[in-house]
């Protein structure tokens, strides 16, 4: 019996030693303070039981705390993508949406798990998934991811997109119209709009997404106002897919919390958004991504270059004007493409670089993907900054993110989620280094 007890104790000690440390002291070369929008040099981060206990340059090692030397790295809060579609993988073909929607539900969940993990490994510790996920498959995926921190980002979901008749499309072939009922919740009146929100609340969504405009119809003012009123009464925010100015302005007037895309926004609409506190999620792409995406639809040479440049010039101008007018910017990728040359994680994180390519300083674009996004989600008290009392969702980039942004943004050294190393899962570090 004594031998058995000794063996069990040794086995238990081995299991414990194999578990990631819950107490960490991490040395970094630079740390991004997302609230103040500044980079601090030679900082240490003390983490206990998934929470940041202290941050500063002179923190001493404590017994029982694992020291990790990442002095070559820049630390930022875990990145937040406010516009994902983890359950959609669409080819750049005329029937891409139809084919992606025909994938069986179980397969879409498995696919979503892969994309979630790729996002996590790219530094995204939180995502907001905005539809194109069947009938509440996003709720199911969220529950699956919540079972283990290393499966993927923390997920906030919208359920089916609320839309005018026709979903997000113009005229569809009868054989393809199944997509509308499968992927959307069509609104037929103001009362139906109210009921749709209550349906979503019952299914456990975190946010309501509305599609303000199809190719040929907008939600009416009464319908969008009913959606906003009912959602806010139930403690849920509303964000609106609005690609052009008229639909975006109507959504802002109705009281939505955010505008997705907003590719064509007038100065007057941007001023209204700033006055009302309506945030903008610019789902833009990098120059590299634009080139690959344009070539993916068959354009070549100068035609492709001119098309990509025209689009980028337009969205860059819109973003700079939004910033100048005082609109809150929140990062969101809308990356759901099945395109060779753009891995899912890189495509998602690339949107942050696209803002910098528009001429926005690094210190600002990082805030869009951390502090601003956390505020828009209503979780800024626990997420989106590296300071005492915050959840230890942290990304460590290998290099100087402040001065070599375009390269370092895609060089993730380590990701912590609630204080646990989720990428890679094994850390190196010795207590001796901490005392030097």
UniProtKB/TrEMBL annotation:
Keywords: Hydrolase. The lineage of its organism: Bacteria, Pseudomonadati, Bacteroidota, Cytophagia, Cytophagales. It comes from the Bacteria. Pfam families: Amidohydro_1 (PF01979). Residues 75-419 form the Amidohydrolase-related domain. The keyword Hydrolase applies. This is Amidohydrolase family protein. InterPro entries: Amidohydro-rel, Metal-dep_hydrolase_composite, Metal_Hydrolase, Metallo-dep_Hydrolase. It comes from Emticicia agri. One of its GO terms (molecular function) is hydrolase activity, acting on carbon-nitrogen (but not peptide) bonds.
């Amino acid at each position: 019996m004594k031998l058995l007890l000794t063996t069990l104790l040794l086995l238990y000690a081995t299991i414990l030693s194999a578990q990631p440390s819950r107490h960490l002291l991490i040395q970094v070369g630079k740390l991004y303070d997302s609230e103040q929008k500044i980079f601090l040099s030679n900082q240490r981060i003390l983490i206990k039981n998934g929470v940041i206990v202290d941050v500063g340059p002179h923190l001493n090692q404590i017994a029982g705390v694992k020291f990790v030397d990442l002095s070559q790295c820049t630390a930022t809060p875990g990145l937040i993508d406010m516009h994902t579609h983890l359950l959609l993988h669409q080819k750049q073909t005329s029937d891409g949406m139809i084919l992606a929607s025909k994938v069986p539900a179980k397969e879409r969940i498995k696919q979503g798990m892969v994309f979630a993990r790729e996002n996590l490994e790219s530094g995204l510790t939180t995502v907001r998934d905005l539809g194109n996920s069947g009938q509440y498959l996003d709720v199911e995926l969220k529950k699956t991811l919540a079972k283990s921190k290393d499966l993927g980002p923390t997920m906030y979901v919208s359920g089916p997109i609320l839309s005018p008749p026709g979903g997000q499309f113009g005229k569809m072939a009868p054989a393809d119209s199944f997509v509308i009922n499968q992927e959307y919740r069509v609104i037929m009146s103001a009362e139906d709009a109210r009921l749709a929100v209550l349906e979503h609340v019952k299914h456990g969504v975190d946010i309501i997404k509305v599609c303000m405009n199809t190719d040929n119809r907008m939600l009416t003012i009464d319908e969008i106002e009913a959606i906003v009123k009912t959602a806010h009464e139930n403690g849920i925010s509303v964000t609106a897919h609005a690609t052009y100015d008229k639909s975006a302005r109507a959504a802002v007037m109705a009281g939505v919390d955010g505008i997705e895309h907003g590719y064509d926004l007038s100065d007057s609409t941007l001023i209204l958004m700033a006055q009302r506190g309506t945030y903008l999620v610019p789902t833009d792409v990098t120059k590299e991504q634009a080139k690959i995406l344009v070539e993916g639809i068959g354009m070549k040479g100068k035609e492709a270059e001119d098309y990509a440049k025209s689009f980028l010039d337009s969205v860059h101008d819109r973003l700079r004007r939004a910033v100048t007018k005082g609109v809150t910017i929140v990062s969101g990728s809308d990356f759901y493409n099945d395109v060779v040359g753009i891995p899912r994680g890189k495509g998602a994180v690339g949107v942050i670089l696209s803002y910098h390519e528009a001429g926005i300083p690094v210190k600002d674009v990082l805030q869009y993907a951390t502090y601003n996004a956390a505020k828009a989600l209503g979780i800024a008290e626990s997420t989106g900054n590296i300071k005492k009392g915050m959840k230890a969702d942290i990304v460590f980039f290998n290099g100087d993110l402040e001065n070599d942004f375009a390269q370092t943004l895609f060089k993730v050294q380590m990701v912590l989620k609630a204080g646990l190393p989720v990428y890679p899962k094994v850390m190196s570090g010795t207590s001796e280094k901490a005392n030097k």
